Amino acid sequence: MPDAPAGAWRAQDEEVAAFAKAFATACARRDRPAVASMIRFPIVVDVSGSRIPFQNAAELFERFDLVMTPDLCRSISAAAARVTPEGATLGKNLVELRRVNGTLKATAMSVTLTPAGATARSADALPNGDIPLSVRVGPRPTQRSGTLEAGGSDAYLIRASAQQLVEIRIEGVPGRDVVARLVDARSNTPVDARADQGVRVWAGRVAAGEYRIQVVRRSAGPDTLTYTLAVSLR
After folding, report:
1. Rounded mean pLDDT, 44-70
2. Distance of alpha carbon 23 from the chain centroid
3. Exposed / middle / buried, residue 115 (Cβ in 10 Å: 0-12, 13-18, 19+)
4. Is 113 exposed, middle or buried (0-12, 13-18, 19+ CB in 10 A)?
5. Residue 58 gets which letter from DSSP?
6. Cα 93–chain centre separation
């Protein structure tokens, strides 16, 4: 393939740098529509070795926090952009760009989640390992993703008002490989029998107080499982 003129390469560099800046800004602001507008659908995203397909923007919105992680947002910048013969890459090959109908679009992404157990050692975790989760009130759930090895678990701490409706969902895993338990944070008493057993979906009204959501892996096997916890308060 003949070399492109220097001016053409400079124009491509500037275009890719502008895309990287816009993509990073939308990611950091959690601007879902803006991010989706820069992606070609369908797209397959590699999440810690698991290939997850997204057919359209609506599917991306449902698992936005799983894909557009803070680490990914920080890694995308003009400085980390590289023009290739096929298009470009952002953030050390985390995002691949191709031209679609004359416009740059993200056509592939790769995300590495925090290893199992590392979340509990992060700066936002409490001394006992609980991870405070600030849940927005309304129909749109707050999401948090993680990975679990066999026998692993994560614990998230939420606060609810009197008679507030709490809904908890575990997404992204098959069957009952990963379940959630809901217990009173002080007494460690399950709120009801289903919450004690562990479920994929739980909903109910609770008394005012703090509650611990225990995300527990039930399945065996050597593979690491990637889950998404979705919590809503109404």
Report:
1. 84
2. 16
3. middle
4. buried
5. H
6. 18
d(C-alpha 16, C-alpha 109), whole Å: 16
C-alpha pair distances (Å), 58 with each of 62, 114, 144: 7, 25, 18
Q: Between β-strands 225-233 and 164-171, what pairing exists: parallel, antiparallel or unpaired? A: antiparallel
∠ CA(160), CA(140), CA(56), 5° rounding? 155
Q: What is the chain's mean pLDDT, rounded?
A: 84
Transcribe 95-124 into DSSP letters. EEEEEETTEEEEEEEEE-PPPTTTGGGSTT
- Digit-coded pLDDT (tens) for 86-113: 889 988 778 999 999 989 999 999 887 6
CATH of domain 6-111: 3.10.450
For residues 182 and 148, give the distance between their C-alpha atoms in angstroms, rounded to a whole number: 18
Enumerate the domain spans of the chain: 6-111, 119-233
Reported in sequence order, the residue ranges of 55-177 that DSSP labels E, i.e. its strands, are 82-83, 88-90, 95-100, 103-111, 131-132, 142-148, 153-160, 164-171
Q: For residues 53 and 37, give the distance between their C-alpha atoms in angstroms, rounded to a whole number.
A: 17
**CATH assignment of 119-233?**
2.60.120.380
